[in-house]
Design goal:
heterodimer, A: 146 residues, mainly alpha, B: elongated, disordered C terminus
């Protein structure tokens, strides 16, 4: 069992390590765990949020009710994520290609050099597609809206 | 797929020349998904032609089907890309392979970089190979051995893309019975090589 002395010491220590207090400091540590943003929540990104809304409105169809729109939203989110990952993959390979000397095989070389990154993106894409599949399954299992 | 597609100067964001009748307007649907994620040397016409063939075979009825078919085309394109990368990487490795084969045979390897440039040196090196009971294919064999770990990684990615592409067929089946069957019955779509596509014909309706 923790002694009273240890508890007091822990509390004392905790008071001196409670993170940044200024707004700028809080903003800075808020992205500490961010590496590349590929798995970031889409609604948190304003541009992607608009993209999700656009896809959702098309999937839901013209004049869709708010309820139907809400049902297709998870599908649209997953789809936007899939598209974002594919664009990121192409952009990454294009960047690697641009850094290589010009030769007929440089695109192949760029892909091989990027295998580690491409494998990670592949994993994210599989997850996004699985989310979309589950969301579509949920939508199919609901009663058809008249 | 063995050839690198010829790059075009046209913008990628275009409506594919959809050749099938569909209940959903093609331009509206293709706008939703944005421009295809292509590499700088990939030909947008070939992608559009592939997507058109997928659409023609499946005849999508609603936006969900368009979304699934876009995925199907993207995954097929990804498979082409990775196969092309495999071939290109082995081809590039052949230059180094000549050097190592010569070294193993105890022949001065400094002439290796002339193998693909100077026909006389190439003939002399092939004579040396023949004297050792070897043919030119030993260069490809050496190249494949040199990069087998990268080829295995590319194969794993191809397998992953193929698994997802096939899973897409099942998903399409769930969504609408019979649609995936039509895609499976269209082998030019399932396993097509994109250089088979008539590029000029595919580019005609692009008068935006």
């Amino acid at each position: 069992m923790t002694s009273a002395k240890a508890i007091a010491a822990n509390r004392r220590n905790a008071r001196s390590s409670t993170g940044p207090r200024s707004a700028a400091g809080k903003r800075k540590v808020g992205v500490n765990s961010l590496r590349h943003g590929v798995t970031a929540s889409l609604p948190a990104d304003a541009a992607m949020g608009a993209e999700v809304g656009r896809i959702a409105s098309v999937l839901a169809g013209p004049g869709a009710s708010a309820a139907r729109l809400a049902l297709v939203m998870p599908i649209a989110e997953a789809e936007a994520e899939v598209l974002r990952i594919r664009n990121a993959r192409a952009a990454w390979i294009n960047l690697e290609t641009a850094n290589l000397p010009s030769n007929p095989d440089r695109e192949s070389d760029a892909i091989v050099q990027s295998l580690k990154t491409l494998t990670r993106l592949d994993r994210y894409e599989r997850r996004a597609m699985a989310r979309r599949r589950r969301a579509m399954c949920d939508l199919r299992n609901l009663p058809i809206e008249q | 797929m063995t050839d690198t597609p010829v790059a075009t100067t046209e913008p990628h964001h275009r409506t594919p020349p959809v050749v099938a009748t569909s209940d959903v307007a093609a331009p509206a649907m293709t706008d939703v998904f944005g421009k295809p994620a292509l590499l700088r040397d990939e030909d947008a016409n070939l992608y559009d032609a592939l997507f058109s063939r997928v659409v023609a075979a499946a005849r999508p009825r609603d936006p969900f089907e368009w979304m699934l078919l876009k995925d199907y085309a993207d995954l097929a394109w990804e498979i082409f890309r990775l196969r092309r990368a495999k071939a290109g990487f082995v081809d590039g490795m052949r230059k180094n392979a000549v050097y190592y084969v010569l070294e193993k045979l105890g022949i001065k390897p400094s002439v290796a970089n002339q193998f693909h440039k100077d026909p006389a040196i190439k003939a002399a090196i092939l004579d040396q190979f023949a004297a050792n009971g070897l043919g030119e294919e030993v260069i490809t064999a050496e190249a494949v051995v040199m990069c087998c770990s990268q080829l295995a990684a590319l194969d794993a990615m191809i397998k992953s893309a193929e698994t997802r592409r096939n899973a897409m067929l099942r998903e399409i089946d769930y969504h609408r019975g019979g649609l995936a069957t039509r895609l499976r019955d269209a082998p030019d779509v399932v396993d097509a090589e994109s250089e088979d596509v008539p590029v000029a014909a595919a580019a005609e309706p692009q008068s935006a």
